Amino acid sequence: MMPAQELAAGPARSAGRPVVPRLEVEPALVSPDQATCQVKIAAHRLSAWFGAQQVLRGVSLDMPRCQVTAIIGPSGCGKSTFIRCLNRMHELTPGARTEGVIALDDQVVNTRAVDPVLLRRRVGMVFQKPNPFPSMSIRENVLAGLRLTGSLRRGAGDELAERALRQAALWDEVKDRLDEPGLGLSGGQQQRLCIARALAVEPEVLLMDEPCSALDPIATARIEDLIHELRLRYTLVIVTHNMQQAARVSDRTAFFLLGELVELGPTERLFTSPSDPRTEDYITGKFG
Amino acid sequence: MPGTRHTDREYEAQLGELRERLLAMTARVVEMISASILALAARDEELARRTIERDHRVNRDELEADELCLQILARRQPMASDLRFITRALKMVTDLERIGDLAVNVCERALDLAELPPLKPYRDIPRMAELAQGMIRDAIEAFVSGDSERAAAVLARDDEVDRLYESVYLEILSIMRREEGVLESGIHVQSVAKYLERIADHATNLAEEVIYLLKGRDVRHQGKLDPGSSP
Fold first, then answer.
1. Which residue, of A55, A98, B62, B180, has the fewest CB within 10 Å?
2. B199: phi then psi, degrees, rounded to nearest 5
C-alpha cells in the first residue's frame, strides 16, 4: 500500500469535477511564496519502477500554476516516466508501480480513491508523435475526449471545437475543413490538433512529452509560441531533449539524472550558472 | 557522468582556440605596455614606432576572436560556463584591444616628448605601468587557473593606480605653474599618466569579467547603480 493511499480519505468523486482526498500532511509541498506562485501539481518523494527496475528515485518537485516547468536530462533519466506518473499513465504499463505522493491542488491523486480517467481530464497530455485518431475528422478529433467521458452537451460541439482550436492556434488554418480527416494535416498542425484535443476537456495541467521532436523548425516555433499563450491559463510541464527549447519556453527547469532530480531552478539561472556540476556537465555537453 | 572535456571534440577545440587567442592577445598588449614605457623613458623613437605597428596585430586579434565567438554562438548555442565564457570573451577582447590602443597613445606621446627637453625623471609613471601590467596578468592568470580570488584581488589594486595618477597630475600641475616653457611636455606626461590609469581600468574590467566567468556573479558597478534598478 502506498503512503499516499494511507493519507487518503473521503469520497472519490461527485457529480462534477472529481473530488480527491485532502492531503493532510507534508506542508512542504506548498511553496512558501504561495501567494504569487501557488503550487498546482506536486510530486513528493516519488519513486517509480518498471518491474524490478527503478526509474525514479524519490523525486520531489513542485510545479506552480501558470508557469512552464521544463524537465531535461539524458535518455533513461526518468523524465518521461515522471510526467506519466503525474496523470497516472505510468500505472497502465504492466508491472509498473510507484511510491510517494502526487498532489493536485494539495490533494493526493495517486490513490485508488481517485478515478485516473477523471484525473486525466484535469491533467492532460500531449505526446511526442502527433497521434490524431485516423478515422476521425478534425472536429471529431477535438471532441473525442469529451465524447469519451460523456461530457459533450448536445449542440455544444461546434462551439467547443472552435474554442479549443483557437486556443491551440489552429482555427484559422482549419476552419474551412473541419470535416476533413485529421491525418490530412501537416505534422505541426496535427500536433496542434492534439493540443486542441487535450484542451477541449478543459484541463488544469497540460503535460507535454517531447511535443516538437517530430516537427520542423517552423512548426516547432508555432508550438513554442502557443506554449507562451497557454501558460497564461494552464500549468504546463514539458519534457524535452532540446535544451534550447527548454531555455526558450520555460520559467523553471528541472534536470534529471539516473532517476533523480539533480537540480531545479529558474530557467535563466540554470542555463547560465547551474549550481550542480552534473547539471553543468550535461548542459555544456560533457558526458564523460 | 561528470567529465572535464566536451564530448564533441571539435567544440572543445573551438573553445580551446578562443582561450589561446585571448592569452596570446593578452601577452601582446602587456608587451606593448612595457615597450611603450621603455620608449618613453629611453626617448627611443624607433621602439615607439615599432610598438605602434604591433597594434595592427592586436586589432586583427580582436576581429578574429569576435568572429570565433560569433561562430560558436551561432553553431553551438553554448550554455552555462561555456555561455559565460563566450559572452565574457567578447568583452575581454574589447578591453584588450583598448589597452593596445592606449599603449599606442603612450608611444605617440613618447614620440612627442622625445623632441622636447626632459621634464623630470620618471618615477610614478613606470610604477603605474608595472601595476597595470600586473593587474592584466593576474586577471588573465586567474582566468587560466580558475582562481576567482586572484581576480578579486585585482579590483582593489585599481585604487593604487588612481592614487598614483592623482599624484602625477598634481606634480605636473605644480611644475607647469612653477617653470617656464614646460607646458607642452607637461601636458604630454599628464596624458601618459591618464592613459595608464585607463589601462588599469580596463584591467579591472578584465578581472570583473573573469569573476563572472568563473562564479556566475556580476561584480560590476557595485554601489554605483541607481536605487531603482537591479543588477
1. B180
2. -60, -45
